[in-house]
Records
---
Amino acid sequence: MDPSMAGPQVAQPPVPGAPAPGDTSSTAGKASPLFPPAVQHNVRVLSSLSTLSACFSGLVAGVLGLQNYTGFLLYLLTAVSSALVFGIINCHGNMGKYVAGSHVPLVGSDRIGVRKWRGWVGLMGLGQENFLGFLLFWIGGYALIHVYD
């Protein structure tokens, strides 16, 4: 069939809220310098490493028979030391380049120092899933070794 015989071409209506074709002024200030697939990969890797280090430290706390504050101190010490290792070796100390949480400014605070601390705290992985893994392995390790003595 001849394309000239198909009839007149109807222009599609613009999508509401979408910028006009060729208009880059509206998206230039909102574009993120982080590449989303790379950020997703980094988050997955850091989450896996944080979970593994929390579970391993829970197992160590249980096997050593640590109780009360000493077990939680081991958890915090492990989280801080693993964040230092990840931050220095993998991120080369540049949190804004590799950790997504350090790139978003706090409300009312756009200071660079605050962003760097948020990156280090993000690397520590002190979230609920890591803490529950730590508790699970701490209780399990303690029960297997010390409860039935």
Note: Residues 35-147 form one domain.
---
Amino acid sequence: MIFTQFTTDLLVALFLGTRESEIGPGIAGFVATFVMVAATIFLIRDMAKRIRRVRHRAMLEHGIEENAFPEMTVEEQRAKAVHPEEKPES
């Protein structure tokens, strides 16, 4: 019922000569865009938090602590944990 009313109103507006400047997204378009942007921001922040947790857990599993070897970078500590017999390149 609502769809047919909308379609009828749209066809009447098009045939009566509605200008393009009178047609726009309106409040519904603004709300839909705002909801999508808010959801995207929330999902990106949540994903970053989860990735940070996974990295931290992996570092703990491999025995890598951020301040264990202050003279070594985290990448060098990872290389040492993965290949303990090899020495990292200087």
Note: The chain has three helices and no strands.
---
Amino acid sequence: MFEERPPTDASAEFDDDPSQEHVIHEIVSVVADVNDCDVMDLPPVSEVIDPDAVETVVQNPGANVVLGFEYAGGFVRVTSEGVVYERAGLSE
């Protein structure tokens, strides 16, 4: 039979709340989904990126800026529209 494999990437769009706390929560949630773990098992995002920088990106939609950083074995991209996480080495 076919072996079910976890996804290698995931994304989430931001809703009407681009606050720093909401954005950090979305990042951690997406990464946890891909890594099939609890959000509490992940290191704090603030250990790898300044949360103020993340907030600046999402609160300036006209700036067309992408913030990228390595986190939890993969790469996170944050824009004013949402977050994308790609786990390293598992792309098909």
Note: The helical segments are 20-35, 51-58.
---
Amino acid sequence: MKQSARILTGLSVSSDSGDFLYKPWYHWVGPVSVLGFSHVNDTETGGYDVAVKYLRYLATHPSTAKNVATKPGPPVRLRHAVRRARERAWPAST
């Protein structure tokens, strides 16, 4: 969890408009590794790109689909659709 939080530091929203902002001076710098994703994360200004790469990685990771598909909250049809998509994309992970 700590590594995920470090990757996402610097991502913010404007208190006036609610628009997304990236504040590089708040971004934690240093190597990060989460669920097979790793990055040198060596600059404040590069933190936005690291966060985007990390979120894309998580969005396509088999554990994410499995986690979403097994939560009790989403409708059953959605859970089944996600589960089938995960099984087609990663047959060995079922």
Note: The helical segments are 2-8, 47-60, 62-70, 76-89.
